[in-house]
Amino acid sequence: MADYNRMELMLASASRLLENGSIVIVGTGAPCAAAMLAQKSHAPEMIILFEAGGVGPKLPTMPISVGDSRTFYKGIMATSMDNIMSMLQRGAVDTCFIGGAQIDEYGNINSTIIGDYYKPKVRLPGSGGANDIASLCWNSICMTVHSSKRFVKKLDFLTTPGYLDGPNAREMAGLPPDTGPRYVITDLCIMGFDIKSKRMIVNSIHPGVKKEDIISNTGFDLLWNKDLDITAEPTEMDLKILRNEVDPHRYIIGRVNL
Amino acid sequence: MKAGLTIKILKKGMGPLFVPPNPFKFREIQRNKDRSQRKKITSVSKAITDYVKNGCYIASGGFGTNRIPAALLHEIVRQGKKNLGFAGHTSTHDYQILINGKCLDRVDAAYIVGLEARGLSKSARKAHQEGLIELCEWSNASLAWRLSAGARGIPFFPTYVNIGTDTFNYSAAYIIECPYTKMPVALVPALNPDIALIHVHRADEAGNCEIEGILVADQDLAAASKITIVTCEEVVSTDYFRKNPERTTIPWLCVDAVIHVPYGSYPGNMPGLYFSDEEHLKKWLEMEEDEDLLEKFLFEYIYSTKNFGEYLEKCGGMKRLEELRKQELLE
Predict the structure, then answer these.
(1) Does the ipTM exceed 0.85?
(2) Which residues of A are catalytic?
């Protein structure tokens, strides 16, 4: 068995969800690392987009900003945010990654404030492009740390739409049909969303993690898949690519708190 | 209008609309403008003195730490401009500078406070947590499309973003029943800022500009704004554009002032020329941890410097800039 940490496991898990030939919009950090791993392993034809205008770069290193020069290095196109967001809005982009300070059982996300809106305990950056990409992409994937502070019953602010308040709510509100969050990858497990109730359901538990760990770190009742899996470990090849090519400085995989 | 031909408003955001759309007023401004290819070369201090008045609404081009008009932002702080409105569109270090200068009192917020993976600006957080700045929420796409509508001379832009969320509830958008599809669609209001500040690779004296790499929202921003101030890495002759007219990213028509400021995006990244100075950005974030340290830091780097060139010298001058050039070119 390979020796790996939980971030490496999360990145390898996220990477497996990305299909060759698909178009994926990412931010910096973990999502970008997962996309780079996919591109350097099973998905060489996958196209990476960045919201500031980068299309299909051959990423030489991990970008620091969603708009820095790396995001269009040897790219197919360097364009505008309008063009990128329009690609998403007309249905041409498969998958996006999102994260945030809080997530609820329907996959809605808060990245705006903690506390009261007009007198916040903490002011956070706001939507950025998160609301846009999660509204418009066919699939969204959330990568986040699993804690009861993050996995809450009620968000302080709904910045970015998951399934809102349940089945059919996205469509009723007017969001494009057949879109929404598909997976939530944490340091404890991989979850999906129940087809009927649109509530979060645990599909696989990471090796060594107990069911109770997940329950005690989640602020709402989770559903559990009847055929609960153990998450596949990263392969030797995954680890080699992550450590040598994707993140040699260990910016992401070296994070101690995860 | 006949009964039965009204459009149904389904929802209205409760956020403040700082700059209400007025396309016909904007047309009048264009009509009365000197649209000749006159020379517009000026200085940073004169441009900010002449155009940026206390209370006006400004917007900054680029993407937070990439191709930002840093020299112009410093000058706004140096001149002590107050009560400015701001389009917080993908704003990071640009926001940090203006917040440190206590220049802002109202902000259209899509992305503020953070510097992406580098962390959060403590003074920006504090300003918001104390309720010093009035906010209206948007997302990067909705704010970019507000500028698109402003640039197109129309009052709003229809979109499917922000729907169903508090981002919408705290915005100044509407959701209507679309007369064509009979489905809900959000309308975001056109935004025509008083002033746009943009840094570009090349410009001629009349204000024709070339940007290399991603454009972010700068073509729309320049066209949507009543006044656009451009700083450039290089001043070129108009022949440069006439030989290859596709080079013109922003035409003279949308530009009111041109200033030659080499390294004008520092400590931000400038595609093809220099990478972001991550050490300086880190230091800036660290200084914000302590108000006294921040005051000294701002005095040293902005208030006591005469111009942006002096700031560059204090940050390591050509030696540091050469290192950043190598980083950018992956040498």
Answers:
(1) yes
(2) 51
